[in-house]
Specification:
The protein is 36% helix and 28% strand. It has a 6-stranded antiparallel beta sheet with strand order 1-6-5-2-3-4.
């Protein structure tokens, strides 16, 4: 089977590195603020501030950045081996001829932004596979996905689905609760293979 889309294709070195480093920088800043508070409260006048803070911050920063290569390899492994992790067996697979794809902008009744933005339109994609119609919503899938299942597709569905019309494919997805709606679930696209 030829892979049309899988999480492996979305792995981005710089995005993952930024994600790992930015969290650590925030922790180091919080630690620095704590040290200033601690020094001002208990050690001022007793210990030279430079002799206390600089070595402490340096050791803490080095300790925070040492595990980065290992964490980066773990993230890469999760992208590449997504079928062996994250409850892949619970992913629903459907296969057949893609007969059509279209999208509409509709109001999503009951979404959490309804009070602030009444009449907000949501892009909804309809994909006809065999005798079924699957519905996919364009959401921020980084925050809406189920974190105990494989990563969701985060791109534009129209660019992914348009070339599929007329092809036999096997599509993997799962239904998940989303933070954008309190009562309705949405389909999270995991992978697409040409059959």
């Amino acid at each position: 089977m030829e892979v049309i889309y899988s999480p492996v294709q979305t792995f981005n070195f710089f995005h993952e590195l930024y994600d790992i480093i930015s969290g650590r920088v925030l922790i180091i800043l919080a630690f620095y603020i704590f040290l200033n508070f601690f020094y001002g409260r208990y050690l001022e006048g007793k210990v030279n501030k430079g002799n206390f803070q600089l070595p402490t911050i340096f050791v803490f920063a080095v300790a925070m950045f040492i595990p980065i290569p290992n964490e980066f390899q773990i993230r890469k492994y999760e992208y590449v081996n997504y079928k062996n992790l994250d409850n892949y067996e619970s992913v629903i697979h459907i296969s057949g001829l893609v007969q059509g794809h279209h999208y509409v902008d509709e109001i999503w009744e009951g979404n959490i932004f309804e009070k602030d933005k009444p009449g907000q339109l949501w892009r909804i994609h309809y994909l006809n596979i065999g005798d079924e119609v699957l519905i996919f919503r364009e959401l921020n899938w980084k925050v809406n996905q189920d974190f105990y299942k494989p990563r969701c597709y985060r791109g534009r569905f129209d660019k992914l689905f348009a070339p599929l019309v007329g092809l036999n494919v096997m599509l993997g997805y799962y239904k998940t609760e989303v933070i954008s709606h309190l009562h309705e679930k949405a389909n999270c696209l995991v992978d697409i293979h040409r059959v």
